[in-house]
Amino acid sequence: MNTDKIQMSPARRLGTVITMLGLFGLVTTGCAVNGGSERKDPVAQKLDEYVVEAGVISHEVTDENVARLWQESEIFRRNGDLESARSKLQQAIVITPKDAVLWSRAAEIELTRQAHLRAENYAAKSNFLATVGNRPLRYRNWLIIQRAREGRGDLLGAREAGIESTRLGQ
Questions:
Q1: Is 2 within the bounds of a domain?
Q2: What is the pLDDT of residue 37?
Q3: How far is Cα 33 from Cα 98, in angstroms, rounded to an integer?
Q4: How many distinct structural domains can be found in the chain?
Q5: Which domain holds residue 125?
Q6: Which is more confident, 49 or 70?
Q7: Confidence grade of residue 143 (pLDDT, cut at 50, 70, 90)
Q8: How confident is the model at residue 141 (pLDDT cuts 50, 70, 90)?
Q9: What local confidence, expressed as pLDDT, does residue 15 receive?
Q10: Which of 33, 34, 85, 129 could cross-link 100 (Cys pair, CB 3.0–4.6 Å)?
Q11: Quick check: is 3 in a domain?
């Protein structure tokens, strides 16, 4: 009987478990120019403050390929290459299509790309896949849905999303 086991290096192991404490970043910040001074979009500011200050969305990835794709997507996203970031996330979603956090990140990227309907659909998919107990992720998705609806001019829908995010954020 062969007792040799394939062992992963510590760096490789690190890549297989990702904890998302604030990694959702500041991508969705929005600014409006008003008389030469910049003012943050209130929903974007709420999203940023929640993610950075509370930082309670955690995500464990056990598939090495998904972990690698996530890390590559994050590098592209931080460097402003949203198309490549989107592509890497789509590849990860193909591998683990029921990962609510991947869908939420994809929604955020689509929102940043101003693909509002796709952003809303991805955030809704993430909410569908998220467990009932994952209020932080669902809260975040409702903020994305609110911004996406505002971007499409659906003010009534944005108001409804705002009510839902307020309910979850309490």
A1: no
A2: 41
A3: 39
A4: 1
A5: 10-169
A6: 70
A7: very high
A8: very high
A9: 36
A10: 129
A11: no
- pTM as predicted: 0.70
Residue 36 lies in a domain: yes
102 residue type, one letter? L
3-class DSSP assignment, residue 113: coil
Report if residue 70 sits inside a domain.
yes
∠ Cα 44 145 131 (to 5°):
110
Output the pLDDT for position 12.
39
CA-only gyration radius of the chain, Å: 17
Cα–Cα dist 46/30, whole Å: 11
Written as six digits, the tokens of 146 are 């609110």
Contacts for 157 with CB less than 8 Å, ≥ 6 apart: 149
At residue 152, the 3 state secondary structure works out as helix
Nearest to 101 by CA among 30, 168, 161, 18: 18
Give CA–CA dist 125/108, Å, rounded. Answer: 13
- Do 88 and 120 contact (CB within 8 A), yes or no? no
Compute the distance between CA of residue 157 and CA of residue 85 in angstroms, rounded to an integer: 28
Mean pLDDT, residues 115-122 taken together: 97
The pLDDT of residue 49 is above 80? no
Q: What is the CATH number of the domain that holds 58?
A: 1.25.40.10
